[in-house]
């Protein structure tokens, strides 16, 4: 029979790991300042200050780039909701509390710099952006389903931070603007370090309680959604971004899931009991299905792009 640990027991057992990973993170994280990534000389007043309000003609970004930037910013904007969930999961004791504070402070820069860039360059409608922010932050995010909040939490944020890194980098390339590309590369570097912290924690949890951790990982992957799910127009924008290679099923499978599962040695481990084996078998079947779906999506996208090119 598998021994199930409480979240408090897991936190106590993994606190030394959290402290070591925190120190490693602090040694690698580079200090940067949002104001250094914004072209302030492009800024001018809006109508309330005697200037001109936004007009679509003022934006240099394509419709896809605008959708990607708005999606990325609104995702970063929901930081208070993420902080609350992380604090509920980790608490504020010892290294856990230090990490919660540090992660929140680093993430806060992302929303600051993205908004400053978009408003100063008049890349998107600032009124619509603010209305979307109000709606998204009011909705917040939902807690994981039943089971260990810690195990599901660290599994989810590992995958989510990596997915966000990919989305930021691909958005930067899509903007066709060296300033935006540099800014989003800087944000992506932060997200990568955050992902590494959580990935190491999840690896330690797999060693500590293999069956429970495997169950949590499988449940998270089978139900994975990006944290922007509650954004206005999220599903429409997600489809648009997938069609243009910002983040799609192939990237989710080949750049997020498979590399992470290899690092965790999920399909090589020999320490699972019956519960862990069942969860691993479910995950294997899901990945096979996801491969088929990714291939179908790529075929459909290629045909659609070929038809569009033929019409030009």
| CATH architecture field | Orthogonal Bundle
CATH classification class: Mainly Alpha
State the end-to-end distance: 64 Å
Low-confidence stretches: none
Number of strands: 0
CATH superfamily: Ribonucleotide Reductase, subunit A
- The fold-level CATH name is Ribonucleotide Reductase, subunit A
- H-E string: HHHHHHHHHHH
Rounded average pLDDT: 94
By DSSP (H or I, 4+ residues per run), the number of helices equals: 11
* Category from helices, strands and their pairing: mainly alpha
Report the portion of residues in β strands: under 5%
Binding site for Fe cation 1: 76, 107, 110, 191
Pfam families: FA_desaturase_2
Subunit structure: Homodimer.
GO molecular function: metal ion binding; stearoyl-[ACP] desaturase activity
Describe the model.
The chain has 312 residues and is mainly alpha-helical. Helix content is 71%, strand content 0%. The radius of gyration is 21 Å and the shape is globular.
